[in-house]
Structures are given as C-alpha cells and as structure tokens.
Amino acid sequence: MNYEETLNFIHSLDRFGSRPGLERIRELLERLGNPQNRCRCIHVAGTNGKGSVTMYCSHVLKTASYRVGTYISPFVVDFRERIQYNGEYISKDDLCRIVGDLLPHYEAMKRDGKQITEFELITAAAFCFFAEKCCDVVCLEVGMGGRFDATNVIEKPLVSVICSISLDHTKILGDTVEKIAFEKCGILKNGCPAVSYPLQTDGVLAVIMEQCARKGCKLHLPSAAAVHICDDRLFHLSFTYDGMNFTPRLLGTHQIYNAVTAVEALKCLRTQGFTLENGQIESGISETVFPARMEVLSSDPPVIVDGAHNPSGIASLCDSIRKLPQKPILVMGMLADKDYHEAVREIAPLAEKFFAVTPDNPRRLDCRTLAGCAAAYTDAEAFDDPRAAVRKALNAAGHDRAVILCGSLYLASTLRPIAAEELKHHV
C-alpha cells in the first residue's frame, strides 16, 4: 500500500468504534512477537494534560541524548504525529511498511470474528516501530481511560503517571471523578513507581493513593507549595521548582503543574539509572512545543489555538482568556457528545464575538446549535465554512484583540492551517 492507501485503510476502521478490552490487542501483539516487551515506557494517563506531560518527558529525554519514542493521540498537524522517534514523525515509508506487515494478522483475526479497532492497530504499529528503533524510553500516552486502553498491555513501566482527572467520556469511564480515577489507575502496575498531578481533588487523590497501596506502587506527589510562579501573564510564563528555573513555551497556569508532574516522573527515571541533569530538565521542558495546546500562531494580531473540550480544559482556557486586555473573538466548534452547554456557559460571556463552526468529525455538533447556545451570552454567528469564520474573526479583531480558536483538537487540526494561511494575507 502507498501512504494514501495506508491512511484510508487505517481510517476505515473508525466505523467499528472503540470497544474496551485487551484481548484483541494482546493477540495481535503476540502474533507480532510482543514488541511492547522490548519497550521501556513512561505510561501517562489522565483527563487533561497527559499529552503535554508526555511531550515534556519526551523532549527532556531527547535533550539528554536518549533514543526516545513518543506515542500520542489524537493528531493535529499530521497523522504521523501520533508516532515519533526523537521528535521526528514516523516516515511515510515506515508507516506503510509496518501497517502492511500487520495486515495479514488483522485479516486473520477478522476471519475469526475479532475486529481490530483503529487505535489498537496504530498502537501495535507504534510498538513495532519503537522496538525496531531500539528506543531507550517510550513516552506512551493513554488513549482513553487506562484499565482497558490498548496501551495498557505493557507489563512493567518505568513510571506510571496520573495527570489531572475531571469529567469526560462519562458514558464509558463513569459519571464521577472517583470512578474515572479508578479507570485511569488501571495503568498502575505492581511495584512500579507512580506520579500524580499535584492538584487533584480530594476524592481523586484518595482513589490514587488507595490503588497505589493495593499495588505496592510508591506514589510521588509534586508539592504545589514548592512551585514559585515568577510571571503568570498570558504570553510570559516562568516559575521555579525543586531548584530549577522554567520558562515554558506551553502557556497557561495549568501547564506549570503539568510540567512539575513531568519533572517528578523524570526524577523517577534517575533512580533507575538514567542520567538527567537539572539543566537538561530545565531546557527540555522550557523548549517543549505541542500543537493546539494554548499555541500562539501569531502575536500581531494575537491568535491562539487550544484544543480544550471538557470542563476542566475549558476552565483553564477561561483563566487564560481573563488575562487578556480585551475580550477576544472566539472561533469555536465542539463534538456533540461533550457538555457543550456548560462549555458555552463558561466561555461565551468572555468573548466579544462568538463564531461557531462544525468540526470535521462524525461526532460533530452542528454550528447552528452551538451558536444558538452562545447567543444567550454574546454576539454569536454560525459558519458552514470554517475559513470564512477565521477570516471574519481576524478582520473583527484588527491588530490588538485576540482571536481564540478552540473547542476540540479535531477542530484545531482543521483551523490551524487555515489560520496560518489567512494570517499571511491579513493586513
């Protein structure tokens, strides 16, 4: 298969959806020689921040000259973003070759009535690629949940990380943060160290501590009191922690606590023989970039892309918006299975104008429905054409007022290149 055919095959698996359980991925990996057993992993779960923590760890380890595999989802810029080696996307040729090697096993299992999902196939491909590359460390982001996530086939992670827990995917993971925390804690393995985000709710932290005690995992909890925030303006962030100084390029106060979570995970690696100097941790975290996570596309006019889509993520985005000197223009789209009523109630009053668009996703929420919700709080308009929404937002903003593109990582993958192109012609 060529690259286009490979992607078409991968995306054709979407229609089968997500089905919990590890039996299929375990059988597929067994057929492939269990490449996951040749990967030493930092395993990262959570509702918010898990992608950022994964990228922080990856960038620091690369800075320290380790061979690093990185697995994230979803992608924003390019599908190959999901599988990286030393900060570079998997090549098109490697992706085609590995998926081609998987195909006979996929078809054999399908004949036996065992339908592999897209996420399972890509997870297996990633493990094959990382094993080929002889990675020193794989920074492995959970897709959804933890206990039954396809990534949870690894046996003994270097460290398990539980990032910020809040309500999301409640129909699958549970309708309370405690139930969701239990699912996320499914990645904890007997005797392996664990790290938690420092600002969990009491109920969530209680679940994490209980599960760590049951599995004999030493829990490392960053001290929020040890964080000294030096500058917390929207475009200028700096802080100190554990004798180190950080000026992260990932913006928002929440990124400070994601960063210290990554620091504690990396310190766990030090105890296992990895050489990570403070300066390497400082520079690696400060230089980490990650598309669509409070990403600044332009400073004149200010244009920010953020993929926040659940209550906690929206709350963090709102905190950042309040630091702006003027109300921004929002270009927003959401998925129908998210709590869009609550998201709009929180964010729309902070906007000068609200331009609703429809994400390119089967679970999309129609832009007219979203605009109808927002009209109760601010001047709202629906756009069938996302380019028209971005263009009108830039014109309405001028050079001083910010434009925020938000609501979904899927939407961000559409709006990000449109905004970059429109900015070239913006006068």
Walk me through the structure.
This protein has 427 residues and is α/β, with parallel strands linked by helices. Helices cover 41% and strands 16% of the residues. It has 15 helices and 17 strands. It has helices at 3-12, 23-31, 50-63, 92-111, 118-132, 170-173, 177-184, 202-215, 253-270, 278-286, 311-321, 340-347, 367-374, 386-397, 409-425; strands at 41-45, 68-71, 83-85, 88-89, 137-141, 159-162, 194-196, 219-220, 228-233, 236-241, 244-246, 295-299, 302-306, 329-332, 353-356, 379-382, 403-406. The strands form three sheets. It has an eight-stranded mixed sheet with strand order 4-3-2-5-1-6-7-8, sandwiched between helices. Strands 12-13-17-14-15-16 form a six-stranded mixed sheet. The radius of gyration is 21 Å and the shape is globular. The model has no long low-confidence stretch (mean pLDDT 93).
